[in-house]
Structures are given as C-alpha cells and as structure tokens.
Design goal:
Helix content is 89%, strand content 0%. It starts with a helix and ends with a helix. The chain has 64 residues and is mainly α.
C-alpha cells in the first residue's frame, strides 16, 4: 500500500473538521423556524382575517 494513500486515509478518518456539521445544524435551525412561522400563520389566519374585516367595517361606517 502506498504511504501517501495511507496518510490521506488516516487524515480523513481522524480529522476534526466540523464545517459540514455546522452547515447541517444551520439548515435544521432554519427549517424549524420556517415550520414555526408556517404553523403560526395557519393557526392565526382566521383571527387576523377577522381583525382586518372589523377594521374595514369601522372605516367604512365612519367614512360614510
């Protein structure tokens, strides 16, 4: 076996480089935040719609 190949193999197995792990953690964090935002929008959709309808009705009644 070539010494260079053995050296390269050992470096890859024993390396402590965690750049890929950090990227995965950030992607999971962004996905979790996106799911939380989507859940909040779906959950509060009716309440927000009612508030806008009430505000529009009050504006229409006060303006006439």
């Amino acid at each position: 076996m070539n010494i260079f190949v053995l050296k390269t193999w050992l470096q890859t197995k024993l390396a402590t480089d965690e750049r890929g792990a950090n990227l995965v953690e950030y992607v999971l964090l962004v996905a979790l935040i996106a799911l939380a935002v989507i859940a909040a929008v779906v959950f509060l959709r009716g309440e927000v719609s009612d508030k806008f309808n009430d505000a529009g009705t009050q504006i229409q009644n006060n303006g006439a």
